[in-house]
Design a protein that fits this description.
By secondary structure, the chain is mainly α. Helix content is 74%, strand content 0%.
Length: 192
């Protein structure tokens, strides 16, 4: 059993390294075999197909993003809740500009959830919890109500992802500084 976990871990690590260095579109069963030293049919012993491996890897990689963003020193943020929210979103953008292939993997790969899989729902709750802290100060200081958080969060997250998609899709219209400026303007417009 322990050996099985070690093999799965090695496959996941190899896939993640390939994704981050070359992009998800370069990950094949044969590329994983070369990277791990295993025979390529071994993947099918552990995963139905490459999508199943990617789906499992996605959870680990999202968890890594959440941990990284939660580890940012919040004392650097302004005491003003609007500026603090801007700080959170700008760090989110900065994270993905350091790791654009991670962003492309999350948003350009067409994930298909395995049947009877509720892991994503639990992960979504964890991810939303990360944003609750950022929006909580806005509620406590009267900028919005608790019921308004989901709509504002969805609006800002969708706008942020849209701007990054334009940048990472080779459009070149937006760089990191331009996106961070747009986010700052958007947040201040919506909350002032």
């Amino acid at each position: 059993m322990e050996k099985n976990l070690a093999v799965k871990q090695k496959l996941l690590e190899a896939a993640e390294n390939l994704i981050l260095s070359e992009g998800h579109d370069k990950v094949t069963v044969r590329a994983l075999a070369r990277a791990t030293g295993y025979t390529f049919p071994l993947l099918y012993h552990y995963y139905k197909d490459l999508n199943a491996l990617f789906y499992e890897l996605r959870f680990k990689m999202i968890d890594d993003v959440v941990k990284s963003l939660l580890s940012i020193d919040k004392t650097l943020a302004s005491k003003d809740p609007v500026d603090a929210l801007t700080f959170e979103f700008q760090n989110y953008v900065h994270y993905f500009f350091k790791e654009p292939n991670r962003f492309r993997f999350f948003f350009f790969y067409p994930f298909k959830a395995p049947e009877d899989n509720s892991e994503y729902d639990a992960l979504e709750v964890k991810f939303q919890g990360m944003w609750q802290d950022a929006f909580g100060q806005l509620v406590s200081q009267g900028y919005l109500t608790f019921d308004e958080i989901p709509m504002l969060a969805k609006t800002l997250i969708a706008a942020t992802h849209g701007l990054m998609m334009l940048s990472f899709s080779a459009n070149g219209q937006y760089d990191e500084a331009a996106i961070q400026n747009e986010i700052s303007n958007m947040i201040h417009y919506l909350l002032r």
